[in-house]
Amino acid sequence: MNKSQLRKQLRARRVALLPAQRRTASTRLVRNALRSGLLLRHQRIGVYLPHRSEIDILPLINRMLALQRRCYLPMLPFGRGKNLWFNALDATRHWVTNRFGIPENATFQAIRARQLDLLFVPLIGFDDAGYRIGMGGGFYDASLAYLRRHHAWRKPYLVGVAFECQHIAGKLPHDAWDVPLDAVLTEQGLHRFKRV
Description:
Elements: H1 3-15, H2 19-36, H3 38-41, E1 44-46, H4 58-66, E2 70-75, E3 85-88, E4 95-97, E5 103-105, E6 110-111, E7 118-122, E8 125-126, E9 132-133, H5 139-143, H6 146-149, E10 157-161, E11 183-186, E12 189-192
Parallel strand pairs: 1-2, 1-7, 7-10, 10-11
Antiparallel strand pairs: 2-3, 3-6, 4-5, 8-9, 11-12
Helix pairs in contact: 2-4
C-alpha cells in the first residue's frame, strides 16, 4: 500500500475506537509516560492539541504542567514555509485557529524544535523502525530536517503518540526526508527505536 491508502486504513482504525476505549487509552498514556521516566528527564517539552480522532493527550499535558515542565505548542509558520515554531503554553487568552482548524497560542514566546528537550509528535501510523505516517503536510519533517544532516545533534528526543492499533508490523513506506522517531508512546507502553 502507498501512504495515502495507509492513511485511510489507519484513520478508520482510529475512528472505530469506542469512547470508553479512548478514555482508558488516555489514562494509560499518562501512566506509561510516568513509568518510562520521559517526564522526569526533560524540562522543555513540545506537545500538541489533539485533533479529530487523535488520542487525547490533554491529561498528559496537565500532568506535565503539574510537574512544572515548560510545555510548547506548535505554531504554523507564516507564509509558505514549513518550519514550525513552538510557542510557550501559558494562561493567555490570545488563541487563534490555524488553517487546519487547530487552536494555536497567539502570544509569541516561540522557539524552534532544536531548543526543545522532548517533542511529542502526532501521527496516523508507525512501524517497527520508528518511521511514522503523519497527516501529509510535512511540517514536522521539515522542522526536524536538521537531525538528518547533523547525526550528533540529539535534541529533541522524538516521541510519537498513538493508539496501539496505529502500529504497523514491519516497515512503512518512507521517503528520504522522513525523520524517524526515537520512541512511540501508546496505551500499551513505550516503543523505543534506535535513531539511524
